[in-house]
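Entry 14. Ran structure prediction on the chain below.
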Amino acid sequence: MVYKATQKQNAAVLFQNWPESMIWSCMQGSMGELYADDPQHPKSAMVWLGDFCLFAGEPSQELARFQLAHPKRPFMIMIPQTEEWGKMIEYCYGERAKKVTRYATKKERGVFDRAALQRMVDRLSPEYDMRMIDRELFALCSQVPFSEDFVAQFADYEMYQKNGLGVLIFHEGEPVAGASSYSAFEGGIEIEIDTKAGYRRRGLATACGAKLILECLERGWYPSWDAQNPWSLALAEKLGYHFDREYTAYEIYPY
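Output, structure tokens:
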């Protein structure tokens, strides 16, 4: 059986020493859901937030297959705590599971050079217009495919205004790049950043990433960054983050 955990402290020990902001979001009750094999004494648990599932404890076929029985999205990213969990994901999903390497950055406060970040913002060409995400742009993001994930985990603008933060770059009235909160936790956000095809390699991701980090620092928030690929890691390091470790994830595709 798989249970939706309401007493999160019972499963929290399975995720201890795992510095992942989505786990913090779930355990703090900010967003995300927690599932376990037992409501009182769990040996296996899963944090589910948006496109991400994070598995801890003993490998459980029922938990690994839970997304199949209750699909919320056609695409998922599954992150195993151990190699044994990875093998379980491979067993359950077969060729649908694409094994990838992601890159974690260190969760460090006080390492950002604000002056350097501001220079990155100031270098944005005047042909582009940078705007913070307000109520109007929140609605716009949900209608534009490349920016949908900028706001998807927030139930409404009021939730985003309280716990989220983001910036969009426009060119001739069209949103072409942005950085925003994929998720939120107490005192911080997990950054989601993207640029439309055809506008990449123009410094737009650098400018909006720098702006978002500066806005977070003004609020006393920590802007957490998890890199999907080496290019994302290189941008993170340019903005002031430090590489922590590689880790394995599985991208699960629909049939």
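The first strand starts at residue 3 and ends at 4. Will compare against last week's run tomorrow.
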